[in-house]
Write a structure and sequence with these properties.
Rossmann fold; four-stranded parallel β-sheet; binds adenosine-5'-triphosphate; binds magnesium ion
């Protein structure tokens, strides 16, 4: 079974108003489990709109999006967004950031921190577990965001230009890092970029 199936989805922002804006027009595609799909296109063509609908943050105006055979109606920790700017809480250390969502799942502190450490190790940040976001580079912060998504149980990573704010060298290292994680952990990735070189390097399908 496909992991994600977009079936003729359209999105009109502000429908029935003079500002009505057709951002997505009858788009269909599917993504298999473990596939790496890259979406490339010019500014304003609807890439972020599409990701936010797959995340369940927005609803399509028509058409449907399925996740493992069920229509998406709301966000889920199984499908996690990673944004261009790292979105960590500045007042929490890395381990607390990564473990934060687990407290909402009712896990005790010891178990939360043990689980967070496992994912910090995976992204090479175990030594920085007790540092705060402002003490880390942009690439390290993005790796922490990826650790947080994985720690909460993400099977699908929805990445919206996640490396666009990084310098060229760090971007390349992060691309390699992401491919390693993807291969080791068999995750499904939908990745948005403006860069054709990045799309060609990363994608199974684009
Ligand atoms: N929350 C929103 N409310 C109203 N209109 C929106 C909203 N988000 C996006 N739009 C509009 O939808 C269209 C597509 O925007 P979107 O952000 O999806 O493009 P994008 O391809 O991600 O662009 P970029 O590459 O610049 O990030 C644009 O015309 C934008 O103004
Ligand atoms: Mg965008």
């Amino acid at each position: 079974m496909s992991e994600i199936v977009c079936d003729r989805i359209s999105k009109i922002w502000s429908p029935d108003t003079p500002e009505a804006n057709l951002a997505i027009d009858e788009v269909s595609f599917s993504v298999e489990p473990g596939e790496f799909l890259v979406i490339i296109g010019p500014s304003g063509c609807g890439k972020s709109t599409l990701l936010s609908m797959i995340a369940g943050l927005e609803k399509p105006t028509s058409g449907s999006i399925g996740f493992r055979g069920e229509i998406i109606t709301e966000p889920s920790p199984h499908r996690s967004m990673i944004f261009q700017q790292p979105s960590l809480f500045p007042w929490l250390s890395l381990i607390e950031n990564v473990a934060f969502g687990l407290s909402l799942q009712g896990l005790g502190k010891r178990e939360r921190h043990d689980r967070a450490k496992k994912y910090l190790q995976q992204v090479g940040l175990l030594k920085s577990a007790h540092r705060y976001p402002h003490q880390l580079s942009g690439g390290m912060q993005q790796r922490a965001c990826i650790a947080r998504a994985l720690c909460l149980g993400a099977d699908v990573l929805l990445m919206d230009e996640p490396f666009a704010a990084l310098d060229v060298q760090t971007r390349f290292l992060m691309q390699k890092f992401l491919l390693d994680i993807w291969q080791d952990m068999q995750k499904t990735v939908i990745f948005v970029t403006h860069h054709i070189d990045e799309a060609v390097y990363l994608a199974d399908q684009y």
